[in-house]
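I would like you to sit down with the pair of lines that follows and say whether C-alpha cells and residues agree.
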Amino acid sequence: MHKLLIRQLRKLLPPEIPQDAIQDLLSAVNATYEQSDLDRLLLERSLDQITQTQEQLASSLSLLDSTLHATADALLVVDLSGNAIIANAAFLSLFELDAVSNANPLDALSLRRHINHYILNLDELYNLIRHTTHHVTAHGACELQLRDGRHIDCRTQPRTMENQPVGRVWSLSDITALKKREQEALFNTYHDSLTGLPNRVLFTQHLS
C-alpha cells in the first residue's frame, strides 16, 4: 500500500470501520497514488532531458556563432523572401552594416538598397539573384567589383530544412590579391621583366 495512503488511513479512518470493508476503495486510491508517482517520475525525467537538450543546443549555437564570426569569408543567411536573418562580422564590415540576427533582421529591400552603394557591377549580382529566386535549389556564383577597387568572389547555395528549401546562404571572399597576381602574371607573360616593354611573345601574337 502507498505510504501516503497508509498515513491518511491512520489519521482519518475511524477505528470502527475496518479496512476490509472499503478494500475496493482503498485499492483504487492506492492505484491512483502509484500512478501519480509514476507520472511524476516520468515528468522529472522528461524535464531533465529537456534541460540537457537545451544545454546541448545552447552549446551548439555558441560554437556555430563563434565559427560564423571567426571565418574570414563574409557570410549572409537569408529567408526565401531575401530578408537577412544572420550575417557574420566579415559581412557587416564589408558593407558597413549594423548587426543582423533573428531578433534584428534586415528586409530584402533595405539590404539591396544599402549594398547598391558598394558594388559596381550590380547586373552580375542581380542576374544571380533572379536565377536563384526562380530556381530555389540552384547553386550559383559571380564575381563582384566594389567601388573601392576590391574584387569579391560571390557564391550562393540553398539552405534547407527537412529537405525543403527555407532560404539561402551567401558566401563572399575577397580575391583582390589573387586578381592582382593574375594581372601581374599576365603582364609578365607579354612584357620584359627588366624594362617593362612588350616582349617577343606579345609581338608574335600581334603579328598572328
